[in-house]
Design brief:
This protein has helices at about 1-5, 25-30, 60-70, 145-150, 220-230, 245-250, 260-270, 270-280, 285-295, 330-340, 365, 385-395, 445-450, 465-470, 485, and strands at about 15-20, 55, 70-75, 80, 85-90, 100-115, 120-125, 130-135, 140-145, 150-155, 160, 170, 175-185, 200-205, 210-215, 320-325, 410, 415, 430-435. The chain is an alpha+beta fold. Strands 1, 3, 6, 7, 8, 9, 13, 14, 15, 16, 17, 18 and 19 form a 13-stranded mixed sheet that branches. The protein has a three-stranded antiparallel sheet with strand order 2-5-10. Strands 4-11-12 form a three-stranded mixed sheet, with no helix packed on it. Mean pLDDT is about 50; it is low at about 5-45 and about 240-540. The chain binds a DNA duplex through strand 4, helix 5 and helix 6.
Amino acid sequence: MLQEKLSAVTDERMSRVQGGGETDLLSDQARLGPSTAPAIPSSSEPDQNIENIKVVLHERELWKKFHETGTEMIITKAGRRMFPSYKVKVTGMNPKTKYILLIDVVPADDHRYKFCDNKWMVAGKAEPAMPGRLYVHPDSPATGAHWMRQLVSFQKLKLTNNHLDPFGHIILNSMHKYQPRLHIVKADENNAFGSKNTAYCTHVFHETSFISVTSYQNHKITQLKIENNPFAKGFRGSEEGDLRVSRLQGKDYPAISKNMVRQRLISSHSHLAGKLGADVLTGHSQVLSSYQYESGAPLTNSDSQESISTHFPQSRESSLLYHCFKHRDNARHLELGCKRPYLETSSAVSEEHYFRAAPSYESPLLSHPYCTEAITSRQACMYGSMETESGSVAGDTDDLTNSSSINCNMWATMQPYPRYSVEGVPYQPFTAHFTNNTTVTPVVPHPTSSMGSRPPADLGVYDSATVQRGLPIIPPSSSSSSCAPAVRSDQPSLYHKKPGSPLRPHRNFPAYPTQGTLPFRDPSYQYQVGLSNAGTHWTDS
DNA sequence: TCCCCTGGCACATTTGAATCGC
DNA sequence: AGCGATTCAAATGTGCCAGGGG
């Protein structure tokens, strides 16, 4: 359910906020003016409005450094942390209200890239999207006071290229560009997942976009990592960071890494080209910059040969996508929004515990940066078949903390390319995983049935039935009825519907960890199979 | 041949248990 | 017995590189 809610981001109001890396809706409105930023709906509880939450990216300058160079993130089979790590300072929360903070990583476009001539170039069309997953902050759910008390760090988030990753890491394709997004979900006893008052907002910092790689391509990025990452201190010690290599190889002379050679050759050979690239960075790249992305368009230029360095503007105001969504209407809207695309569900599997969401970056959102009350008419599909479970659970959740068994959770959701869903690109199923302390989850998949036989999410598209049950299904090759932009009418469909699509195992989960059976530090511990239902009670952390 | 990925390596940091003293 | 500080080993996180596969 949460997944779907989050996915609904694409179909909901999104606003672009600039400056300071802070998602300040009010200031954004002031900047954008009434035409693009409707006044915030009045509320009887202004302090509790989730739209008042401000998020500031920690170490934004460092992020910008990487961004200007072209951030690369290593992905490995075992999972690799992000560096810089994703940390934010949150303000504006209601100290007593409980929130869930989570991150997903969505494709920035549908291109595959290659590092050529010292810059990133489009190398073709993106491979099928990986199974979408969410990383829920271990402290979730926690009170606003908790989140605001200190920096919120997502440093333990890991990226992997293992399509069958059993640890719940975020699965990405190598040589693809991605954009992390922060979601803040308001959830407490009176406003839990699945409730009609559920509210959440999404924050996107463009500085945090990156290209996933299995080994660093840009030597500058390598150096930045070495210089700034404490774990890479062992590679410091020389200006080029290659002294260690010489030591390791027992050489008396500094070794030149392959990468360095390549970089230097490139730079010397294409000095002019590099200059041109720099111009690109500083020039029209800025033009391409944020708006395209924010508007839901791919960041990359349509020209397949154009350097994507344009996507890493050298300097620009920190811009981010801000999306605020709030359920004020009854659940009917949500249900309608979800059911419509998935009506012809093949109720086949009972893996109804996965959330799927189909967020998109459709431009219409920009034109209506924020509009909470008006959203109900076009609620995105945020709820699958959560009603049943949520309803039954809503009241026995006081023992969330006690029921250590539900420490981790994971669910699938749909993740479309920003605007490609219209073009038939299959949505990615999302699998969120709650880390150890998470006790509240939108849904509770059965450890054995749901996870074990889970369809593959890498190409996942859900039919109407599976969506309601949270079941990923094989993605249709293309579907015009799929995405929000295409169906953005009253019942925006964020999912591709392909009745009869066979279900495929999401991945080969070995034995799904059961609650309390895994060592706390065991990676798999984070990925509890079970997802508690919506409407669970929140406990103070 | 080229590009990309994998696994192993050495080094640094982090974590947590064990120990000690108060 | 309880608490805090310290120590130390294991676990974890890094980038680099050789080698392999498509």
